[in-house]
């Protein structure tokens, strides 16, 4: 995505240490390659950004494992993809441990303040929910960030390098800078009004009052200093020390500029995140979700993400018929229907506190049969479909409506190492640009993750599992997924895109497993997303290719959307052969690399 400058990464190898040094920009050959597909051996990295991919590959080349490389690459994304990821946000880390053949997860989701009430996003003045933008650009939307704790735990448990060491390449990129590309500039332009409200954000991303020019060098010395402070003194500086104090101050007293220059339609409200919320933050390590699909074992992220259960349920529904015997149109028809049914159930049942037996039921084959029986090969269901009644047997649904969510922020990365370990990691600050508040002097944006809660109930008279509450984590759609075959990795993938994450991951799997596509073809193919709304959301090329045939079955399409998702993936072939795959076009294209390239 980002066209980097200081990015010929050279490594100085001593007997026991590796020092990653981004070389001076032009003198040593400039930017690392930005290629969407790489094939070879010995480890692989796929991210949205060539700098982050290069950093990850360098770690692998010098003996680091997949976890080391994933942390170093993620920290770099915090510099080059700051509007989607960073230590001001949260995410979900999924790790396949090759030695023990086990999948582990880290829930590094942001949590709400201890004082958060169910009506935090309801205006006390009129009893109505705030407009989304009003809630987003405020202290109310900021949850305790979990990303740094995630990196620390991943490095401690499964890595081979200290976090301090893994932060160094990213700190150097932040110091020396990278070249602004069109995507980076556009993400700032799209946020010009909210960014202009805060002196700290304006200074960093609106120099001279406007987005930086494409081709200019973007530096972030404050973030470099923050990374180095953490490297020296540990993550306590962030959760208990001076950085915590700055985060809390930013949330409680948003650093609003005296002369914003660009008008903003809303009051900027403070939040009630406290030092005790940061000090009390704890990661969770939930068991992954698991569903079996035609002999493959699909592992995903459990609550508070709905990704694992929603992808798993949809796959189970699809598995109820033999897709190898139906037309391509029928495969797509069933993909859209399975997705709608799965979303109805997700909206009704899945939130941070969904009991495990309910989650287990949602990814069971029995439940899939109860849902799949509603699909008519000749006619699309009327949307929204009601969620299923999990206490009933047969095809009996309960009645309810649903909220359609989307969003296009977040970032995803996939890493494999020579030992067979795999990391699939999705991290976010929620909206592109998060809450729009850069913590003054620290160089990172704070998330607006708490707006992933439903502001008011969406399930009619039934309880809504995703309403705010004290210390609660908002429901996510992030779907980092690792697919095993016979206990060994077959495919790992994930994507950004708000609620469309679920459908993007599902569609890439359907493309790869059921539509006779290679992984790069499955990634590049045009996308459609049916999240239980009247009309399917789709990219123009999808509508052009499949719109007529699917229209005859009763599917309708909303206005085309330019792009859905920005996925990364790795496929594991025979004899250790790896295919690393990033987007060829979406979001400016991603970057894949392998340690030993071979076609
Ligand atoms: N906050 C969203 C989630 O957790 C992700 C945001 C996005 O990808 O746009 O599901």
UniProtKB/TrEMBL annotation:
Pfam families: G_glu_transpept. InterPro entries: GGT_bact, GGT_lsub, GGT_peptidase, GGT_ssub_C, Ntn_hydrolases_N. GO terms for biological process: glutathione biosynthetic process; glutathione catabolic process. One of its GO terms (molecular function) is leukotriene C4 gamma-glutamyl transferase activity. Residues 455-478 are annotated as: Disordered. It catalyses: glutathione + H2O = L-cysteinylglycine + L-glutamate; an N-terminal (5-L-glutamyl)-[peptide] + an alpha-amino acid = 5-L-glutamyl amino acid + an N-terminal L-alpha-aminoacyl-[peptide]; an S-substituted glutathione + H2O = an S-substituted L-cysteinylglycine + L-glutamate. L-glutamate binds at residues 109, 452, 476-477, 498. The active site is at residue 410. Belongs to the gamma-glutamyltransferase family. This enzyme consists of two polypeptide chains, which are synthesized in precursor form from a single polypeptide. This is Glutathione hydrolase proenzyme.
């Amino acid at each position: 995505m980002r066209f980097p400058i200081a990015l010929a990464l050279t490594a100085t190898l001593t007997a026991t240490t590796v020092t990653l040094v981004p070389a001076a920009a032009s003198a040593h050959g400039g930017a690392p390659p930005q290629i969407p597909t790489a094939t070879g051996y010995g480890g692989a990295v796929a991210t949205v950004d060539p700098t982050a991919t290069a950093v990850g590959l360098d770690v692998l080349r010098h003996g680091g494992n997949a976890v080391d490389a994933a942390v170093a690459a993620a920290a770099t994304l915090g510099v080059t993809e700051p509007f989607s990821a960073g230590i001001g946000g949260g995410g979900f880390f999924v790790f396949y441990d090759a030695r023990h053949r086990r999948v582990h997860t880290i829930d590094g989701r942001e949590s709400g303040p201890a004082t958060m009430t169910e009506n935090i996003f309801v205006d006390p003045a009129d009893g109505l929910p705030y407009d989304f933008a009003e809630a987003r650009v405020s202290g109310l939307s900021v949850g305790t960030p979990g990303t740094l704790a995630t990196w620390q735990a991943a490095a401690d448990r499964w890595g081979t390098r200290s976090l301090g060491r893994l932060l160094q390449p990213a700190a150097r990129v932040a110091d020396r800078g990278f070249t602004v590309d069109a995507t980076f500039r556009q993400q700032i332009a799209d946020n010009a009004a909210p960014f202009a409200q805060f002196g700290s954000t304006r200074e960093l991303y609106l120099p001279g009052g406007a987005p930086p020019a494409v081709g200019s060098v973007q530096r972030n010395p404050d973030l470099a200093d923050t990374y180095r402070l953490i490297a020296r003194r540990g993550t306590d500086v962030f959760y208990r020390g001076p950085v915590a104090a700055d985060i809390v101050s930013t949330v409680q007293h948003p650093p609003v500029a005296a002369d914003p220059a660009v008008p903003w339609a809303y009051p900027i409200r403070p939040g009630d995140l406290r030092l005790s919320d940061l000090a009390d933050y704890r990661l969770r390590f939930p068991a992954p979700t698991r569903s079996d699909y035609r002999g493959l074992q699909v592992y995903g992220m459990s609550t508070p993400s709905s990704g694992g259960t929603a992808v798993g349920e949809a796959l189970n529904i699809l598995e109820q018929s033999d897709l190898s015997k139906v037309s391509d149109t029928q495969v797509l028809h069933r993909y859209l229907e399975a997705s709608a049914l799965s979303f109805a159930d997700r909206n009704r049942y899945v939130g941070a506190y969904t009991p495990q037996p309910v989650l287990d039921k949602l990814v069971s084959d029995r439940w899939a049969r109860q849902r799949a029986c509603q699909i008519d090969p000749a006619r699309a269901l009327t949307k929204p479909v009601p969620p299923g009644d999990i206490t009933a047997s047969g095809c009996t649904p309960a009645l309810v409506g649903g909220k359609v969510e989307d969003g296009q922020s977040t970032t995803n990365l996939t890493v494999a190492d020579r030992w067979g370990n795999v990391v699939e990691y999705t991290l976010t600050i929620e909206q592109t640009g998060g809450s729009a508040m850069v913590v003054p002097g620290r160089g990172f944006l704070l998330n607006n993750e708490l707006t992933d809660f439903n502001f008011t109930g969406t399930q009619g008279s039934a309880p809504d599992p995703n309403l705010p509450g004290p210390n609660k984590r908002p429901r996510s759609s992030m779907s980092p997924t690792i697919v095993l075959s016979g206990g060994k990795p077959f495919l790992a993938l994930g994507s950004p895109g708000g609620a469309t994450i679920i459908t993007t991951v599902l569609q890439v799997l359907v493309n790869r497993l059921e539509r006779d596509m290679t992984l790069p073809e499955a990634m590049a193919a045009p996308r459609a997303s049916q999240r239980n709304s009247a009309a399917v959301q789709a990219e123009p090329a999808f509508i052009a290719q499949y719109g007529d045939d699917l229209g005859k079955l009763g599917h309708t399409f909303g206005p085309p959307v330019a792009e859905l998702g920005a996925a990364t993936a790795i496929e594991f072939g025979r004899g250790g052969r790896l295919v690393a795959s990033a987007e060829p076009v979406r979001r400016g294209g991603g970057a894949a690399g392998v340690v030993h390239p071979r076609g």
